[in-house]
From TrEMBL:
Keyword list, A-Z: Signal
Signal recorded as keyword: yes
Annotated signal peptide: 1-31
UniProt-recorded name of the protein: DUF4136 domain-containing protein
């Protein structure tokens, strides 16, 4: 490597390192969960569950379903979604839905509803490389979301367990539907285990 190339490489390497450090230090995902269990359902567990996300878009619903299915499989729980059980090309009565769920051995349903969400991008920072005459713009992104999660006994239609999940992310790596879906799925499953409703 000649002297000119080496001089050009060193500032570039320093710039890449500086940008990487900025991105890592400003990137995180934090989630808080508040849960409550119905006293009549302290030891309530299930072998199969029907998960609904009525307020989610298709992409987010797909991300959460994929993640939750993996989490539930760790406890040998079979998970179904609306797409798995009910054809969109016909109308289903409550009795017909209950019959389908009963045939699959589904005794519980989990409803995950988005209560609020926001996303923003700040002006960011511009890094200059005077040796190469270049500038790199790094924009800071962040998001927040609050979800209401309900575990319902299908037979009695009683609310067995409820949770409020608050999650916020910062940095491109931790902002967006995939990151939020991963956090929600992980913490819903963890909270169900900690509450005794999902076997460890």
């Amino acid at each position: 490597m000649n002297t000119i190339a080496l001089q050009s490489f060193r500032p570039t390497a320093r710039l890449v390192l500086a940008l990487s450090l900025v991105l890592l230090l400003s990137a995180f995902r934090h989630t808080d969960v508040d849960t409550q269990t119905n006293p009549a359902y302290v030891d309530y567990t299930f072998d199969a569950v029907y998960v609904q996300l009525p307020t989610a878009n298709d992409y987010f619903r797909e991300y959460v379903a994929e993640r939750l299915a993996k989490e539930f499989s760790k406890s040998n729980v079979c998970m179904y979604t609306t797409e798995d059980l009910f054809s969109p090309f016909r109308d289903w009565t409550d009795e017909e839905r209950r019959a389908v769920l009963s045939e699959r051995g589904v005794s519980a349903t989990i409803v995950i509803s988005l209560e609020s969400a926001s996303e923003r991008a700040s002006p960011g920072t511009i890094f200059f490389n005077t040796d190469l005459g270049t500038a790199t713009h790094v924009q800071a992104k962040s998001d927040r979301a609050v979800f209401h999660v309900r575990l319902i006994d299908i037979e009695t239609r009683d609310l067995a367990w409820t949770a409020i999940v608050r999650t916020r992310g910062s940095g491109s790596l931790f902002v967006g539907d995939k990151s939020t879906a991963k956090a929600i799925s992980k913490h819903v499953a963890r909270s169900l285990r900690e509450s005794g409703h999902l076997l460890r």
